[in-house]
Specification:
three-stranded mixed β-sheet; single chain; 329 residues; Immunoglobulin-like; alpha+beta; 2 domains; elongated; six-stranded antiparallel β-sheet; 14 strands
């Protein structure tokens, strides 16, 4: 019985030795493989002021026959911010491959901060198992600016005087030029509108209105405006002459009225219906020319001019033999 117990004890010991040997062999192969991979993480300095930028360099050297993934680095690592990063640089040298990347980091908090290890994942050539290998952690100190308590407190410096440039004055120059151009255009527009009431301004009450109207019509006919293609100007002057005559002859504010309003006021004067209708047609043609760019025929030009002359002549006041008052023809 004692021999059987010793045999079983010896057998268990033998099995434990075999299992331990296998584990040691596997572990040793991983160590030997990891010895072929070198990782490195370093920084320019480990003591800087808050907000200062320092460079963090990552490097890994490994056999070319291994598949290795470079770590994906986030924009922040704790309270450390990644401001910029270079592309991963790969260099092949004999049987080795080198991968490098530089990061620009900073922090706006003071204190000691740890940069944790960066893990590179690789895959063995003969297996599909993934294995990690990491860099060593780093410590960096971000300090605040020391305050000199012995120094006196000074006022805040005033803003610096910067000389003006032409580009700063350019918008104001353009604005003044546009304002001047606008004023000029308004003045020109008002000047062109002034002749509309020129007949009233030059009016001499001693001269009968029909004399002035017929003289103005004669001058208009001599200008031959519609023959020169200035049709709108021709009808503008023609209707202004008749409107001015009506205002002086009948005390109707014709220059401020529309064509329909003028005809309505003339109808109340009990003028000849035929005279009213020819005047109506004349105003209709004139309004179409001035507001709808209508182009009348030559005989319509003559009709409008003759209608204006006939209206003036037909409304000339005559003296009555048995009194001093006047009445229309």
């Amino acid at each position: 019985m004692k021999k059987i117990q010793n045999y079983n004890k010896h057998r268990k010991t033998k099995y434990r030795f075999i299992i331990s040997t296998l584990i040691l062999v596997l572990f040793s192969s991983n160590i030997l493989l990891s010895l072929d991979i070198q990782t490195n993480a370093k920084i320019d300095t480990n003591d800087v002021l808050i907000g200062d930028q320092i460079k963090l360099s990552l490097e890994v050297i490994f056999p070319k026959n291994l598949r290795l993934n470079f770590p994906t680095i986030p924009d922040t690592i704790g309270k450390i911010e990644i401001l910029a990063r270079t592309p991963i640089d790969t260099i092949d040298s004999n049987a080795q491959r080198i991968m490098r990347q530089n990061l620009i980091i900073t922090s706006f908090d003071s204190g000691y901060f740890e940069i944790p290890p960066f893990y590179f994942i690789y895959e063995k050539e003969d297996t599909k198992e993934l294995y990690p290998i990491a860099t060593s952690p780093l410590m960096v100190k971000f300090s605040t600016i020391p305050i000199d308590t012995a120094d006196t407190i000074r006022d805040i410096k005033p803003p610096l005087d910067v000389p003006y440039t032409f580009e700063e004055f350019l918008p104001y120059i353009i604005g003044l030029l546009l304002l001047a151009l606008t004023i000029y255009l308004v003045i020109q527009f008002l000047k062109r509108r002034k002749p509309k009431h020129k007949l009233l301004q030059d009016y001499d009450p001693k001269i009968p209105p029909h004399i002035i109207a017929l003289d103005e019509l004669r001058k208009l006919n001599d200008e031959k405006l519609w023959q020169k293609g200035e049709i709108k100007l021709y009808y503008t002057k023609l209707t202004d002459i008749i409107r001015t005559y009506i205002e002086r002859r009948f005390n109707i504010m014709a220059l401020e009225m529309t064509s329909d309003e003028i005809l309505y006021e003339l109808e109340k004067l009990n003028l000849d219906n035929g005279l009213i209708e020819t005047s109506r047609k004349m105003y209709q043609i004139a309004d179409l020319v001035k507001f709808a760019k209508f182009l009348p025929l030559p005989d319509e030009h003559s009709f409008c001019f003759n209608s204006a002359v006939e209206f003036v002549k037909s409304t000339i006041p005559v003296e009555i033999s048995n009194g001093n008052k006047k009445e229309d023809k």
